[in-house]
Amino acid sequence: MTVITAKDGYQLIAKLYVPLHNQEKNKVLIINSATAVDKKLYHHYASFMAENGYQVITYDYRGIADSRPKKLRGFKASFIDWGKKDFAGVIDFAKNKFPDHKIITLGHSIGGTIIGMTPKNTEISGVINIGAQTAYYKDWTKSQKNKIYFLWHILFPAITKLYGYFPGKSLGMLEDIPKGVIEQWHNRRKQSDMKTQMETNGMQFFYSDYKSKLLTLGIEDDPIGTEIAIKRIHDQFDQSDKEFEIIKLTSVPTNKIGHFGFFSRKFRDTLWTKTLTWFNDI
User: Fold this and answer.
1) 22 has pLDDT over 80
2) Which of 5, 61, 125, 239 is 20 to 30 Å from 154 by CA-CA measure?
């Protein structure tokens, strides 16, 4: 494991994947995780990219998995911290360790959203976002909307209030989550425009600073990252050279992908190769 220092000095736990010397492409890929997801979810995809010549960095945000403090009750963290401090620190690490490499990023879910929360995004040469959205419940699929709303906006906040954090691991629901993350996500429920809502509260965004290439990918059966949901983030990158695509299940082919399935090894020769080809052209 590798320790990466966030912009405020917090120590993040990361893992580096190193390519064979004769396959080196002089590119370093940073993988930004989804909310409450251990970096281990991306292990096989990261290994695949390393096999194809990329330096790869996976890491856990503060408060999550290996970057979790022993005590989460009272621990201060938000998804804005993940972008402004954690991701920014990882960019600095990549730039310092691999000074002659292009920095590219794959953002999964919140991992794509936080790219616009740091001016450091100008250091990035290419971004693929998968299912990146703003947690506005009216964007979710009709069949899952009530269930997801109950979880994110009733159950999770109630349990978090009781424990001082969300004990996801004990409940078999991904990782434990800091209170500040749950509160920020819960407060997103009534506002379709995340940027305006959070700027009103003093947050500064840097989506327009990013002028390099962007590929936004949606998955046909993703109940959270629906087409309208991911367009909200895609549209914020208004100065980038961007593409938008919804992956149809029949094109893979498969009968299920959802919000997390992209990183299954069964998509090595299809979806993974698609992203590899795109990153190779950066």
Assistant:
1) no
2) 61
